[in-house]
């Protein structure tokens, strides 16, 4: 999560970091305010000062994750669209030894399962999905406008990319298949990203020159 900085610490930021750790250790279903307080090293009274319920805290946590995602993966004019799109694919891959990250994703999957029964959760999940798809749509539109990508429908292409990666990661964390997400990432790169490139070259990589009229 966030890095500590000099000066006074932000209590809500510390609570978010503690929530990250507690979710990874206990999962969503078994998570309590006491678990988060223990990870924070403070009493639950501090948590209740900022959040009335665990539900309210977790809604804020998802909002916090989205804010960090926007900061880390927002528009970067210094990077070409192709590189930004490949980085987005890479973001979904985590190594087998990243136990804390895998546990967090599993906890978030449990969180998502409550969406149909909890309006506050559902609203955050909808926002999260829109953020992911919107990020890819922006990359695609930028690439099309600058001539890097062939013209495609940004909305449908982004929807397909995000849904594919989401399904791959879900399979990895629920079935303990460490190779599945990297495999899907590579297939998306080969079957979606590579064909998108507007490259005026032949199969040998040399520029194609038009024949002069006789």
In whole angstroms, how far apart are the ends? 65 Å
Number of domains: 2
The chain-level structural class is mainly alpha
Helical fraction:
55-70%
Summarize the biggest pleated sheet. Answer: none
In brief, what are we looking at here?
This protein is mainly α and 214 residues long. It has helices at 11-26, 33-40, 44-50, 54-73, 81-91, 99-113, 119-145, 154-175, 180-196.
Any overview of this molecule?
Helices cover 67% and strands 0% of the residues. By secondary structure, it is mainly alpha-helical. The protein has two domains: 57 residues, Homeodomain-like (Arc Repressor Mutant, subunit A, Orthogonal Bundle), CATH 1.10.10; 123 residues, Tetracycline Repressor, domain 2 (Orthogonal Bundle). Helix 7 crosses helix 8. The chain is elongated and about 60 Å long.
Features:
elongated, Tetracycline Repressor, domain 2, Arc Repressor Mutant, subunit A, 214 residues, mainly alpha, disordered C terminus
Describe how the helices and strands are arranged:
Elements lengths: L10 H16 L6 H8 L3 H7 L3 H20 L7 H11 L7 H15 L5 H27 L8 H22 L4 H17 L18
Helix pairs in contact: 1-2, 1-6, 4-7, 5-7, 5-9, 7-8, 8-9
């Amino acid at each position: 999560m966030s890095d500590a900085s000099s000066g006074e610490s932000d209590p809500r930021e510390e609570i978010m970091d503690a929530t990250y750790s507690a979710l990874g250790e206990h999962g969503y279903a078994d998570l309590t305010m006491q678990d988060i307080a223990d990870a924070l090293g403070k009493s639950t009274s501090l948590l209740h000062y900022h959040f009335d319920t665990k539900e309210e805290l977790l809604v804020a946590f998802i909002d916090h994750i989205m804010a960090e995602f926007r900061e880390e993966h927002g528009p970067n004019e210094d990077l070409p669209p192709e590189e930004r799109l490949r980085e987005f694919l890479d973001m979904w891959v985590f190594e087998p030894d990243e136990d804390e990250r895998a546990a967090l994703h599993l906890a978030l999957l449990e969180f998502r399962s409550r969406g149909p029964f909890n309006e506050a959760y559902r609203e955050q999940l909808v926002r999260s999905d829109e953020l992911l798809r919107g990020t890819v749509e922006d990359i695609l539109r930028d690439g099309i406008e600058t001539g890097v990508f062939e013209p495609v429908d940004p909305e449908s292409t982004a929807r397909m990319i995000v849904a594919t990666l989401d399904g791959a990661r879900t399979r990895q964390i629920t079935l303990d298949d460490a190779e599945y997400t990297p495999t899907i990432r590579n297939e998306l790169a080969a079957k979606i990203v590579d064909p998108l490139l507007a490259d005026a070259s032949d199969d040998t990589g040399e520029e194609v020159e038009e024949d002069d009229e006789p």
